Amino acid sequence: MERSAGSRPRRRRSRPVLGGAVAALAAGALTVTGLVSTAQAADINVARNAGFESGLSGWTCTGGSGATVSSPVHGGSAALKATPSGQDNAKCTQTVAVKPNSTYALSSWVQGGYAYLGASGTGTTDVSTWTPGSTGWTQLRTSFTTGPSTTSVQVYTHGWYGQAAYYADDVAVTGPDGGGGTEEPGPAIPGAPAGLAVGTTTSSSVALSWNAVSGATGYTVYRDGAKATTTTGTSATVSGLAADTAYQFSVSATNAAGESVRSATVSGRTAKKDGTGPGPSTSVPKHAVTGYWQNFNNGAAVQKLSDVPANYDIIAVSFADAAGTPGAVTFNLDSAGLNGYTVAQFKADIKAKQAAGKNVIISVGGEKGTVSVNSDASANAFADSLYTLIQEYGFNGVDIDLENGLNSTYMTKALRSLSSKVGSGLVITMAPQTIDMQSTSGEYFKTALNIKDILTVVNMQYYNSGSMLGCDGKVYSQGSVDFLTALACIQLEGGLAPSQVGLGVPASTRGAGSGYVAPSVVNAALDCLAKGTGCGSFKPSRTYPDIRGAMTWSTNWDATAGNAWSNAVGPHVHGLP
Question: Which helix (H) or strand (E) segment is 377 a member of?
C-alpha cells in the first residue's frame, strides 16, 4: 500500500518477451533443424522410463518443477507435468547412452502450455523443437547425429517462463543401442506427497487430503510426529482428538521399495465442543469489504476511526512500524498528523467499531515497510510483538502487506505462533501485489496456502501492476473486468477457498499510480466470479458464490471522493448470494 499518492518504484522480476515470433509460429510446432530422419528397423528407444511409468526415475527436473500425473496421459498410466515458475522454465532432462556417428530420431507427445523438446551434447549440431501449446496431445519430432566420440547425449523438455504447465509422455530417442539398453528400472521409493491440506474438522477429528504420488501404493499419516493412520487413497480423517486443540500433521508415500520422506507439516485445529467451529471465530461476514485507514496525512481526508463508514467490515490500521529487534513491530499513533487524535480516543473508537460488528486489524508493511521475518528468532519476535499490540489496543488481527519480500517458511511460523497465542477471534488478511500471486510457488502464495486453515482473506492489489497473466495463460492489462477476474481465478483455482479471495482496488484515481477502475467495474467482476454474469472476454469455467468481497486503498481516499467507492461497492458486496 502507498503512503503517498502517485506512482512508485516497483521491484519487478523481468519476464522474457516472446515477441512476434509467437504469433508467427502459433499455427503449429516448428522443427528447428528441419527434416526429421526416419529410424532404421533395427533401432531401439534408448530413453529409459520414457513413459514416466516409474515416476521421475531417470529424469531430473529443475527446481522441483516436475511431477508425474495419472491424467492426462498419452499412453500407459502416467505422464510428466512440469510447471514453469519465475525464472525456472521447468526443464526436465535425461542422459541417454548413444553410439558415435549415429543418427537418432527424437520425439515426444506434449500438451498444455509452451513445450520444447531437444538434445544437447550431440557432438555435432544440437537440436530443439517446440509448440506454443495445445489442448490435446501433439507430437514433437526432430533428429540429431552424434559426433565421432559421443557416447552420451542429454535429451530434455521444458516450458516457457510465466506460461502454463506442460505435459509430456512417451519420449522416444530411437537409434542404435548405445549400451544403456531399454530395460525399465524397478520400483523406486516414491517422492514426498505435496499439497497436504486440512479439510473439515469436528471437535474430535481433522480431515486431510493431499496430491497423489506416482508409484505410491499407500500413504502414512503422522500426527505430531507419531503415526496416526494409513490409507491407499489421497485423503484420511484423523479421529480421537481433543476439542479446540491445534495438531501438526504430515504424510508420507509408500510402495514395495520403501517409504518417502514426510511432506511439509500443516496445522489443523479441532472445533470447540459447543460447535462454534475450528480456529478463530470471527465476526467477518460471508461477504466483506476491507478498507485501509491511514495513520498519516498524505493529502487524503484525515479521519478518526469513528469517521470510517459502516460499509467497511474490516478496517486495516496502516501501518505498524519496525522496532529495534529484527521481526518485531510496534505502533505509534500519528496524533500530530491526525489533528490531535489521541490514543485514548483511538482505543475507544476500536471498541465502538467492534461493538458495531466490525473488525479492526493492524497492517504490517506497506510501500515503505521494512519489517523482515527470515529466521526463527525474528518469527518469534514478530508474533510476540503483535500479540502485545493486540492486547494493548484490542486489534482483532493482523494484515500482511510486506511489499519488499516475504519468507514463507518463517512467516508461516510467525502467524501460526500468533494464532496459538490469540486463539479464537484472530483475523488474518494479506495484501500481496499481483506478481506475488502469479504462481503457487511464490512466497506469498505459499504462505497463504500454508495457513489456509486460519486465513481470513487475501486481498491482492490489482493496481500499480501493468499487464499480468490470467489463469488461462493469456495476458491481461490492468484497469478492466478481465484483469480482475482472470487474475482472481489463479487464486481460486490455486488452492484458496473462494471465501479467502477478495479484489483489492484503489478508492479513487488519486489512491494509486495506476490501475484505478470505477466501482461499477469492481461490481461487474464480483458478479462474474460469484454468478457468471457481467464478465468481459474472460469467463471462468465455474462460479464462486462464496467470493469474500473487495478491498480498497484507502478509506481516506474514499472519503476524499465523497465515499463514492464504499457507497457503490459496499451494498453490492453485502448483496452477493
Answer: helix 376-393
Q: Which of 307, 290, 297 is nearest to 429 (CA)?
A: 290
* Catalytic site positions: 403
Instruction: Say what the pLDDT of residue 526 is.
Output: 98
Q: Which amino acid is at 565?
A: W
d(CA 577, CA 574): 9
Sheet holding 60-61, edge to edge: 30-31, 127-131, 115-120, 152-158, 92-97, 60-61
Residue 273 CA to residue 477 CA, distance in Å, equals: 49
DSSP element (H, E) containing 568: helix 564-574
What is the distance between the alpha carbons of residues 426 and 283, in angstroms, rounded to a whole number? Answer: 10
If we measure between CA atoms, which residue out of 136, 167, 142, 165 comes closest to residue 155? 142
- List pLDDT tens digits, range 134-188: 888 999 999 999 999 999 999 999 998 878 999 999 999 999 988 764 444 445 7
Q: Determine contact, residues 407/371, Cβ cutoff 8 Å.
A: no
Cell of 83: 510447471
The per-residue pLDDT for range 198-233, each reduced to its tens digit, is 777 788 888 899 999 988 999 999 998 889 999 999
Amino acid at 151: T
Is residue 111 within 8 Å of 137, Cβ to Cβ? yes
Map residue 389 onto helix, strand or coil: helix
Cα separation, 313 vs 571, in Å, equals: 12
- 223 touches 248 (CB < 8 A): yes
Question: By the 8 A CB rule, do 147 and 122 touch?
Answer: yes
E strand or H helix that includes residue 24: helix 20-25
Using alpha carbons, select from 202, 357, 347, 344 the residue that is nearest to residue 269: 202
Whether residue 319 has a cis bond before it, omega within 30° of 0: yes
Q: Report whether 408 contacts 447 (CB < 8 A).
A: yes
State CA 349 to chain mean position distance.
36
